[in-house]
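User: Fold both of these, please.

Assistant: Here is the first one.
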Amino acid sequence: MRRLDPGVVMAMVLVLAAVGAAACSKDRALPGLPDDHATREREPALLPRDAGAGPSGPVPHEDESERHEELPNKVRLPPSVVRAAGIETAPAVLDSLPATVDLTGEIAADPDRSARIAARIPGHIIAVRVKEGDRVTAGQTVAILESPELARARATFTSAAARATSARLNADRIERLEAKSLASGQEASAAEAEAAALEAEGAAARQTLSALGQGEVESPGNGSARVTVRTPLAGFVLSRDAVPGQSVDAEHVIAVIGDLDRVYFLGRLFEKDLARVRVGAGSEVRLNAYPSEAFEGKIETIGRQIDPAARTVTARILVRNHGDLVKVGLFGTARVVVGPAETPALRVVVPLAAVTRVANQEVVFVLQPDGDFELHPVRLGRTAGGRVEILSGLRAGEAVVTAGVFSLKSAILKSTFGEGE
């Protein structure tokens, strides 16, 4: 589960606390909207319709698990709760969405936000502290290894450091004797050279230990040495190749860690569309696993080599994850904006973030003049550039909630659950 921001958690608590005292109207409830909503569905929504873009018709059959009896379609929240929940509104507008091109592809981890954690030293694994799919933090222990080679390296460093210390003390002593004319300059020079050589050996031994993870080493009393392997970044364990007792070499990759807050969608761009698609173009990615979720992104790079078999080139689209839904390897489609609408037909348009799903229906929340937030079931059209067409259920100019939608949805559902208790 995604860790929610403390501010969001507090806002949700305030919303749910306010629902008990909020006036939730049930004079028009889902499913089947009588009264003014039925009229709204039959009206042309202030713009011409395409053939077949008429009333949305009856609500499709719902599973028993998704049906909400007498679900209220209005909720009123105190102004303080509205502010705490970050609820914002914007008017629905008449507009035409730009032309788009669809690219099929899959999710891949950002190589700059990934780490292949190798053993760095031959040995055998004592313990593994992570499982595939775990969320980890930077510096967290991945595995513990025991390595006789590391023990030898530590012994070499200890010996070199001790000899260097002794040689330095001797060089300092002879230098003092030379100052009193009790030793020759040649003896002082020889002692200084020996001390410098042994200090260089000690520095090399320390550098070898550092390359082997010397700062993370424990020395047990039996003469062996253990090294703790840690992850340098936070993220998820994408793969793991380690079990206790397994012998590994220095290049063996114990685990692969990836930060999936930001990933790439690798879209296949056909050469016939190359002239239309540009770096920086906005896109909307929908994954096959989550068809109702949209992930906004932009094209970061377009490849320079055509696949000779498929006649496609890879377009890398930077996508920001939400809800920890994105997983490496998921297939989907990216809808990329390529220019103005080819046949500009005005329709009611709202931000994609304004649409949510309640009782198996796509809905938006509309702020009423009296301060109520009213639920409007809508029928959706095309999406592009983070916006969506509303074919029915909403008029141009109505104040649609564009931020804080989840808090209002929680308030509507919470009021229903509370009545069943």
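And the second sequence with its predicted structure:
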Amino acid sequence: MNHQAKKKFGQNFLRDKNLLMKIVRDSNIENKHVIEVGPGQGALTTFLALSALDVVAYEIDTALKPILDEIEEKHPNLKVIYEDFLKVNLLNEVQDFHVVANVPYYITTPILFKILETPAIKTASLMIQKEVCDRLLATPDSKQYNALSIILQYYAEAHKMIDVKRQMFYPIPNVDSAVIRIEKRDVPLVDKEKEGLFIYLVKEAFRQKRKTLVNNWYEAFKKPKVEIEQFLIDNGFKSNVRAEALTKEDFIRLTKVWGND
């Protein structure tokens, strides 16, 4: 059956078998519970089912059902659910899950946050836009470094598995892709009661990148600027420092002492 890719679902299908096998192999999913987001025509799904203990694939496009039904019939350990992954409640799951997916570009960030905020999901291998991958893995004082870089690196160890040229997809997208590997930390780097503060401090620090940390945090917390300046100085920073100069560890340290005056 031929399926016309739908722009509204961000559908670009990957068909290179060698690349698909490498992604599965390097995801270390043997005998594990796997979630696939957007199986599409099932090219990756087939290899996942051959390796994993079981696979739950969430697909929003019901027009793909005839194709996926055939794959499901061949693999008893595969279950395709026609729901929006972002609306699925996984918070009560007790078993560990591992996500492997070719993620639609337009929902990369919400999928990433859902993975990070779902305790049952332990690892993820995600095909995403190369530019986004570079931003997620960016380091301080680089152009790509932003709040999401720090938040991801707070929750997980992450690295790039492989670059993927746009010509390997059908239809061919306008950008290249990359596969990012995310392995979530077992122990939080900040006490749970201060984790929300850490995320808020980081997000607000980058609210307007051209502004100093003092100005961004002043707008977020409405504390007198002189107090925020003194807080930074007391903790070893210049009063005019910008967010992109701070490491993840710097933000963690500042979170731990924030409000201790």
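The domain at 7-184 is CATH 3.40.50.150 (Rossmann fold).
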